[in-house]
Hints:
The structure is a single chain. The strands form 5 sheets. Strands 7, 8, 9, 10, 11, 12, 13, 14 and 15 form a 9-stranded antiparallel β-sheet that branches. Strands 2-3-1-4-5-6 form a 6-stranded mixed β-sheet, sandwiched between helices. Strands 20, 21, 22, 23, 24 and 25 form a 6-stranded antiparallel β-sheet that branches. It folds into 5 domains: 3-185, P-loop containing nucleotide triphosphate hydrolases (Rossmann fold); 197-292, Elongation Factor Tu (Ef-tu), domain 3, CATH 2.40.30; 304-377, Alpha-Beta Plaits (2-Layer Sandwich); 382-487, Alpha-Beta Plaits, CATH 3.30.70; 493-603, Elongation factor 4, C-terminal domain (Alpha-Beta Plaits), CATH 3.30.70.2570. Strand 17 and strand 18 form a beta hairpin. It is built from 14 helices and 30 strands.
Amino acid sequence: MNLNKIRNFSIIAHIDHGKSTLADRMIELTHTVDERQMREQLLDTMDIEQERGITIKMQPVRMEYKSSDGNAYIFNLIDTPGHVDFYYEVSRSLAAVEGALLVVDATQGIQAQTLANLHLALEEDLEIIPVINKIDMPSAQIEKVSEEISKLLYGDANASKEKIIKISAKTGQNIPELMERIVQDIPHPQTKNICALRALIFDSTYDNYQGVLAYIRVIDGEVKKGDKLYLISTQEEIEVLEVGIFKPDRKKIDKLSAGEIGYIVTGLKDLSSVKVGDTIIKSEEKDKSQTLKLPGYKKVNPMVFAGIYPKNSEEFEQLREALEKINLNDSSFQFVPEKSQALGPGFRCGFLGLLHLDIIKERVIREFGIELVITMPSVEYKVELKSGEVINVRRPQDMPDPSAISRTYEPWANIEIVTPKDYIGAVMAVLQEKRGQYRYTEYLDKDRVILKYSVPLASILTDFYDKIKSVSRGFASVSWEFEDWKESKIVKLDILIAEHREESLSQLVFADDAYRVGRKMVERLKEVLPRQLFVVKIQAAIGGKIIAAERLSALKKDVTAKLYGGDVTRKMKLIEKQKKGKKRMMQAGKVDIPTNIYFEILKKE
């Protein structure tokens, strides 16, 4: 394959700015897929992606494009997610390409995740092609958005605006001009030819029949079926069973050469043998592995932790296999086994955010049919004991006795909010409520600003995004990254339902917020818990002290319905007997908590 005729690129943008629609138009224009097989969001292959209208997994596709100069080019496109919880997918895709299309919605302008994804692309030193999408919309502000992009990329609102491609991914307007710009502006891949093969694993998945499939970008040399390869990090040796490309379904080919993107079938059944970011070389060159090893990816640190337990403890091993398979193609998700006295064996899992947690939960239920119990999500805290030892606390049950604690530290995040200036006051009020510390304000233009704050990560876990969207009428957008650990007073808040301590609902909270959080929790539980045949006490407690309480009234059964006459005392006797029975049930009864209850608590205002 001639390297000069290859273009590798990703599409990056804020969520819902039209990445997947643009990919669809490119696939149509290049006739990569038969017209009868085309559908909207073709590269979003999971049911959850199509239902929610968001991209969760990056997805590569190979297209063949004939340019205006008569030459045929290979386009390797990687479509990426737009939500902040899936930024690691974006960073991995950008390490496998030479360029990126920065897509901005003409009706919304630059948003917070636009900036975050742009920073990732600039870190990889990629060629950026700015694209304004949805120019066919009546509310499109093409000139204003052009100035925003010019200021962001070139430092001057009026500089180089002619470099910005203006398209409508929905109608296909100006897509051919964009394809020509890709040919002209995105550099072709480079190779050093220093070895027989060197390839980067940028993603992987599992096939029940073929084992682990590694998605690779070939840097040097070539790979074909039957080659004996060496995986540097895991020191695993394999024989290639199949080589192929994405069209976007997998398609077998004879070989992959330098500059190309595709997959290899490893045949490995041990899921831990293949790691994203690893380097593949030929087995005969494994003695040079340390000099040939590619930089790989930065280690990703989960920010949100929750316990995942099978509702039926006999399904523990099936749950382990399910999580291993999900981890294979989502390396930002991490898990370790743990045992709960109340819930039995399960896993303590780490996620990049609440949406990430929600998606993993849905995938386990849908793809593997396992009913789950999930504990309240929390962030990680550091606790310094009086003995001088520092421990990491990822779940409320691990919190030491208060008498043994010297200091506690919580994670803080740098947060960027892009908002119209009319809503600055309302947005700042929300940040103040969330214990945010103001850093500075930057103007994108005369109408929109970027607010930069430091905020405790725990404060933005639950209803933060909803509140920001509410006070800004949906116009503000948010992105964040981890900043540092800061000292704070953290306590364990327990929830008791029918006087039983519910381990799955316990959480660690800022001491000054304990009463407010406890009060909100019991009120929300009163709304979302199913009523029982007896009165249910719902209480929030710190240690042995009850700080908030509610009662869920009992379901009433008409025990007098069978009476058809006689003295009123017969009716009163039955009612009194019912009261005594409900009293006994209240003392001994236990409430079965539905598996989705914690998400209901988080979502409900």
